[in-house]
Design goal:
The chain is an alpha+beta fold and 201 residues long. The chain folds into 2 domains: 64 residues, no CATH class; 101 residues, GMP Synthetase, Chain A, domain 3, CATH 3.30.300. It has 7 helices and 4 strands.
Length: 201
Amino acid sequence: MPLDATLPELPTLNRRLAQSLQTLHTHAGAYRQGHLMAHCVHPFDEFTVHGDDEVEAKYCRAALCLLCRRLKAIEERTVLKLLLDAAQNTIKPAPLLFFQTLTLQDAPPAEVKARAALLVKAIPKLRRKLPRPVLGWARVIETNSSDFHPDLENVHTHLVMLFPSGLAEDVGAIQWDALWQNCAVELARNCDPNARMPNGS
């Protein structure tokens, strides 16, 4: 894995999030997440931050852990790339590959899990409402710090879809914001206005 200059910041952000969750004593689930995250150790980050290459890995696997989510994202990306390459090579003519990001309203840390659950339920609704058939799809749910309020989290999903070849104009005409609003209702925020078809179909 190439060394990314932004990686050393992730352990610091994770510790801050863990401390924030541990202040929520009235919410047992959030407090436990924070406790697990506070003891999470990823050797790569420890080596980068502290210069110690003998650190033993202790993955907490907490749903809100930034370090474990990054590790999972790397694994998911590897698998997804293999599946997409296989689809592009076996489906003829090659399908149209389309990326979209669907975002929810920002939420406090204690509500992140519920927002993620909403995304899981809303995506199938959106797929059923699409005006064109979907040959295949995959989604990844992510949580970032809010751009508008330091105490809130933004929960969103990156959606990858395969459409039949030759439908670029039809797919480009889909009103994604209206469709997402219909599926996520009052918690819908927006979609990526620059959603793209990287293969140029």
